[in-house]
Design a protein that fits this description.
The chain has helices at about 75-80, 90, 95-105, 115-125, and strands at about 1-5, 10-15, 25, 30-40, 40-45, 50, 55-60. With about 130 residues, the chain is of the alpha+beta class. The chain folds into 2 domains: about 1-60, SH3 type barrels, CATH 2.30.30.40; about 75-125, no CATH class. A hairpin with an 8-residue loop joins strand 2 and strand 3 (about 25). Mean pLDDT is about 75; it is low at about 60-85.
Length: about 130
């Protein structure tokens, strides 16, 4: 799928899907990037997350619609990380594989499709 920013100003693309999270880059009006899914109102983009309400998402779905993640999926990262104001730099600098290993060693279950942000949120929620 692809997501196109349909605004007039720059759109913040965030490190994790929560308001106020670190901005990793900005999208210019009309810019198109890869999008793997929309989950709880956040578009999972190549390289970050942006509020889906500001994007036009199109692509692989047969009817042209975007499938929202199922309601029984894991809660959005902002809920899991609500207690953690900031992501510790040590976790942010780790690779996804390192985070998966840390989660397993801590007894935290993460799915094989979990993003780096979701793994960090799960680790922080268990702390």
């Amino acid at each position: 799928m692809k997501a196109t920013y349909d605004g007039r100003k720059l759109l913040n693309v965030r490190e994790v899907p929560r308001p106020g999270a670190a901005v990793v880059r900005q999208m210019a009006p009309g810019e198109t990037v890869g999008c793997s899914m929309v989950d709880h109102g956040w578009a999972v983009l190549d390289g970050g997350y942006a509020k889906a309400e500001y994007l036009v998402v199109s692509g692989d779905e047969p009817d042209g619609s975007v499938q929202e993640a199922s309601q029984d999926a894991a809660p959005p990262v902002e809920e899991a990380a609500a207690d953690a104001q900031e992501i510790p730099p040590a976790l942010a600098s780790m690779t996804r594989a390192q985070l998966v290993e840390m989660a397993e060693q801590s007894g935290v279950h993460v799915t094989s499709k979990a993003t780096k942000a979701e793994i960090i949120a799960a680790i922080l929620a268990d702390a």
